[in-house]
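Section 5.1 Outputs to date
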Amino acid sequence: MRTVIFDLDGTLADTSADLIAAANACFRGMGAGDLLDPVADVLTAFHGGRAMLRLGLSRIGGADEAVVDRFYPVLLAAYEGGIDRETRLYPGAVEAVEALRSAGFATGICTNKPARLAELLVRRLGVRDLFGSLVGADTLPVRKPDPAPYHLAVREAGGVSERSILIGDTDTDRKTATAAGVASVLVTFGPEGAEIARLEPEALLDDYADLPALAERFLPA
């Protein structure tokens, strides 16, 4: 079965505000106040909780990994508590996935967000039933850009990797697709905007309305 696998944060949904809010809650707990900016630090937010902690700590004297390890569970707890406060699906995402499924494509998610939080988020957003698989950062011993999570997401969605493509928004997704031997389609409405073209993916996606036709081009029936 033809299969389209999506990244989650920055691809299907803009989660940056809730991620940064969780990191700032940690920094306030340290007595340091809000160290991340919801606009200027969006790109770091999509690189994960530890990256946000390191950036914030670097602004007050250094990113001690022991402190990062100590506060990472605190960040995850804060994030879980407000996981869908500001998060929104990107315009047209639901309609595009529905169109793909109607055309006979299988769809799944492969994310570097912890699986439990990813499951919680997509259920809160009301779209879990649109995806046949969801593989998170801790589903396997390895995470993206290792290709194993991607291959698992394809299999659990009911497809085969040779007839699949990856929709993402970062260098991690580009590297994952390369390692898996599949085409990457990177969105230009994610954290890097049009600058994502520097990664030279097989295609760019400016609007979710264009995805069904793009998928047909890469994976003809």
